[in-house]
Amino acid sequence: MSLLAGSYERFIWGFRLKQHRQSSDDQILTLTQLFSYPAHLSPVKSVAVAGPIAASAASDDSVKLYDLTTCSELGSLLHHSSSVTSLSFFSPPSSPSSFPRNLLSGSDDGFLSIYDTDPFVLLMTVKVHRKGVNDLAVHPTGKLALTVGRDSSFGMVNLVRGRRSFCCMLGKEATIVRFSLGGERFFMVMDDKVTVHEAEDAKLVWEFECKKRILCATGGQNGLLFTGGEDRGITAWDTRTGKYAYCIDNAHSSRVKGIVVLTRDNEAGASDDPYLVASASSDGVIRVWDIRMAIKEKPNPLAEAHTKSRLTCLAGSSLKNCGRLQM
After folding, report:
1. How many CA atoms lie within 13 A of 173 on its CB side?
2. What are phi and psi of 160, to 5 degrees?
């Protein structure tokens, strides 16, 4: 399993989560650093990982691409004319490998760009918002993308036809949008609140309220939703019952900027290790948790790494060798 983090100091950090068996019943996890170097000319705003390939975006209007199997940079995508604010890969669920099919990026001029990944070529750009795109999410089928923008609107893009199919005002600016793992629901974050909606008709199902502003969120197995932010903890919500599940209080000494649910590979995630969650904070620390321990007591992290930088984002994926990548 691999992790990629971006920082305010323009650096990106690559880690691999390794498992070491001390005995038949005792195993330990370690985060091994793969690389770190100044990838951009300005603070990193977003990172994305899918199998052996990773991407980072920053305020320098560029997207950098990396091969995690060789720890090397593949090149840059320079089609944007403003800051790139969000990234997301799409990998077909029926694909025998974890290599992604498309890369989507949102920018500060309100455009959504769609790239092919073999090789990396720009397919189209779609104007979605009047102001910048805050975040984007791709449906597991790859046919639909959701966006939220600084103009306080919510957008829906038909990826088959390559055009915006729906847009509405939210009344308040949303900063995060995500689909559930199965794609049946999606959720949006507005300051300290999370709203859960049906994907079919956008009907509001639940609304959760945290103590402080939410800065990151991700979906997990069994209908769980993980959030982190200025409260320095990791909170789990049950989207099936609409209730609070549990919380890791004071997971970091500073605000939580990224949360990733780790799986060994795309097919075996539900049965092998659905309990591993990684978090990154602006204190420069990345930690891996066993969330089962949070139900009983305050857990200790299974592994951690200190980057000594102000982390801004985190992404993770299973790591498979899919051969030589091409630009």
Report:
1. 14
2. -75, -45
Give the tens place of pLDDT for each residue, 131-177: 999 999 999 999 999 999 999 999 999 999 999 999 999 989 999 99
Ranges of H-type helices in the chain: 269-272
Q: What is the DSSP letter of 223?
A: G
**Structure tokens that stand for 261 in this block:** 């649910």
* Tokens, residue 164: 């915006």
Greatest Cα pair distance, the chain, in angstroms, is 58
Taking the C-alpha atoms of residue 306 and residue 214, their distance in angstroms, rounded to an integer, is 23
200: helix, coil or strand?
A: coil
What's the distance, Cα to Cα, between the start and end of the chain in Å? 24
Stretch 227-253: mean pLDDT: 93
Side chain identity, residue 145: A
Sign for the CA dihedral angle at 93, 99, 102, 105 comes to positive
pTM: 0.90
